[in-house]
Amino acid sequence: MPTSIIYLEGVTVSFDGFKALNNLNFIMYPGELRVVIGPNGAGKTTLLDVISGKVRPSEGRVIFGELTELSSLAEHEMAKLGIGRKFQTPSVFKHLSVYENLELACHQKSKGVFATLFSKRGERDKIFSVLEYIGLAEKAWHKAGALSHGEKQWLEIGMVVIQDPRLMLIDEPVAGMTGKETEKTGELLTSLAGKHSVLVIEHDMNFVRQIAQTITVLHEGTVLCEGALEKVQSDPRVVEIYLGREHKSHANH
Amino acid sequence: MPGQKSWKEWLLLGAILLLLLFAAPATLSEFRLNLLGKFLALAILALGIDLIWGYTGMLSLGHGVFFGLGGYCMAMYLKLQVGTAGTYQTDLPDFMTWNGLTQLPWFWKPMYHFWAAMLCAILVPALCATLLGFLTFRSRVQGVYFAIITQALALVASLLLIGQQPYTGGTNGITDYRTLLGFDLADNAVQKGIYVATVVVLALCYLFCRWIVRSRLGKVLGAIRDAENRLRFLGYDPVGFKVFVFAVSAALAGLAGALFVPQVGIISPSNVGIVPSIEMVIWVAVGGRGTLSGAVLGTLLVNGAKSAFSEEFPAFWLYFLGSLFVGVVLLFPDGAVGLLRAARKLAARLRAPAAPEPELREAEQETLR
User: Fold this and answer.
1) What DSSP string runs through B218-268?
2) Looking at beta carbons, which residues of chain B come within 8 Å of A94?
3) Which of A2, A66, B219, B334 has its CA 20 to 30 A from that of B311?
4) What does the CA dihedral A146, A148, A153, A156 come to, rounded to 10 degrees?
5) Is residue B345 domain-resident?
């Protein structure tokens, strides 16, 4: 058994008595591409919040890589350890140029005050290769706030890629994208897996079918079932709580 | 990669510097030159406010305090230079004598030396800002709460200065100076010298700030303004950056205070409290947040208008200032510099409608230089 990249044991998160995560156990191995699905309120985003340090669990342990206990670290320390995150609503630095957004995200040895004051700005080639990859090379000097919704999604994915993290947390990457863009995103994420571990949250079942190797279904803050697409799809409990509501959840978007 | 814009900018900067250093002293009356010198000292403070507010998005309503700390340090030095030539012919500053003090307080003692006073004028505000900033930012106090805390600081500081009359001169502040480094302050040549020093220091501070905002750290500051919480997930701890920019900004305010005092001849709690602190923010808003030239321009514009206005209609100045602020914020959020840029863009588009947008080329040149 190889060492897990992320391991959650008995994690509970409660907000004023409401348990967003309830005694959750979750494990992922290096190089894996995992898709987490579940109805609204199942705790998907809270799961990412716990792993990236935004929310502290009230109970349980979160272990990253070789026994790094995450619960005492701040967000920036977790990012330095190698956890990158793309948010549900694309959040980029809107007054900086597309290029500068990537420049900030760039994997740097030090992200302290004086290191950034004295270091040369650069890594031009690396930034342009990512720009080509996400199809924004033409818009490198535009302000990120002027991009379309889909382009912002791409930019934020690019920011995670250029960080070169060990574990990527990707929250709803294809919301607001066209069919072709969705397909391209799927290709990108599939190509990243292997070298990186990728955890994706997604509602779009077509997209899930395109990329999914292993699927985890969350329901009411706990894992309902886990496995390959066929196994999950044929599980009657999943059909009951999630796939049965697919139409409804699409109508909401 | 020095672009075309870059040498144009240096040429413009050089021309303005020459104008201020040679043309202004040759043509302006002593009174006007003294006013200009005073405004240029204030522009140094505005650069600092622009760093923290315009570039980093944190509104400080307490910069009067840092300005005052610098100003008081210089005033203490100037007051001690008077020596026994004062009203009561004692070693002590006059207000201490009539407040019954017989010994110089300990924190006045280093101020016998000019360079010690100068150093304190910069370091004391920077240290205060570092301490306050660390405590505030570590507990993730953001936005309007930071503004309220700094405003409270301004109130506390001015009350403290008024209340501690034997040590600070109370409401009257510290005034009636004679000499600076042995030179007579009443002498016009000396005042001209202080004016030239102010121009040089302002130019250096401008270059210093320009270096900061163009570094990678400058981009981090912009990211803090846009989405501070997002930045954490890229591996940056915003606390250190915010403390740094607050401290630099306070140091610039202190330096401004130290240059202001010998030109004006007085520092008092009325330079320190809430109202002057808000006025300082208005200079930057009027000139244009997030551009260093805007901060300098705004300071000159508003203060120029203030002295012109108060010569004619002294009672209406504050009403005018208030409406100016509301008007700028509502109608021209990018201030005077924003207006200039919009005009330039329009002109460029009229001349060559198909040309690529100039600011994109500029952004490229600046980033990849």
Assistant:
1) HHHHHHHHHHHHHHHTTT--HHHHHHHHHHHHHHHHHHHHHHHHHHHSEE-
2) 226-227
3) B334
4) -10
5) no
3-state secondary structure of A110: coil
Residue A22 DSSP label: E
* ipTM summary value: 0.85
Q: Which residues of B touch A85 (CB under 8 A)?
A: 233
Taking a C-beta distance cutoff of 8 angstroms, is the pair A87, B227 a contact? no
pTM: 0.89
Question: DSSP letters along B6-40, please?
Answer: HHHHHHHHHHHHHIIIIIHHHHS-HHHHHHHHHHH
Q: Does A13 touch chain B (CB under 8 A)?
A: no
- Chain A residues close to B361, C-beta within 8 Å: 141
**Is A14 within 8 Å of A50 (Cβ atoms)?**
no
Q: Tell me if B363 is assigned to some domain.
A: no
C-beta of residue A46 within 8 angstroms of C-beta of residue A55: yes
Torsion of CA B117, B119, B125, B127, to 10 degrees: -130
What are residue B183's DSSP bridge partners?
B180
Whether residue A171 lies within 8 A of chain B, CB to CB, comes out as no
Of A22, A8, A47, give the one whose Cα is nearest residue A199. Answer: A47
CA distances from B316 to B276, B282, B319, B322 (A): 17, 17, 5, 10
Tell whether A109 lies on the interface with B, counting CB pairs under 8 A: no
Which residues of chain B have a Cβ shorter than 8 Å from any chain A Cβ?
A: 212, 215-217, 219-220, 222-223, 225-227, 229-237, 240-241, 244, 360-361, 363-364, 367-368
Angle at B323 between CA B246 and CA B153, to 5 degrees: 30
Distance CA A99, CA B107 (A): 50
Neighbours of B356 (CB within 10 A): 9
Domains (range + CATH), chain A: 33-53+78-252 (3.40.50.300)
In whole angstroms, give the CA distance from residue B33 to residue A78. 56
The answer to whether residue B199 sits within a structural domain is yes
From first to last of the 369 residues of chain B, give the pLDDT tens digit.
Answer: 345 667 888 888 899 999 998 888 888 888 999 999 999 999 999 999 999 999 999 999 999 999 999 999 999 999 988 877 777 777 788 888 888 888 888 999 898 899 999 999 999 999 999 999 999 999 998 889 999 999 999 999 999 999 988 888 888 888 888 888 888 888 888 999 999 999 999 999 999 999 999 999 999 999 999 999 889 999 999 999 999 999 999 999 999 999 999 999 999 999 998 999 999 999 999 999 999 999 999 999 999 988 888 888 878 888 888 888 888 888 888 888 888 888 888 888 888 766 556 667 777 777 765
Provide the sign of the torsion angle of the four alpha carbons A155, A158, A162, A168, taken in this order. positive
C-alpha span between B159 and B154 (Å, rounded): 9
Q: If you compute the radius of gyration of chain B from its CA atoms, what whole number of angstroms results?
A: 22
Given a contact cutoff of 8 angstroms between Cβ atoms, the answer to whether A174 and A202 are in contact is: yes
Domain that holds residue B157: 20-286
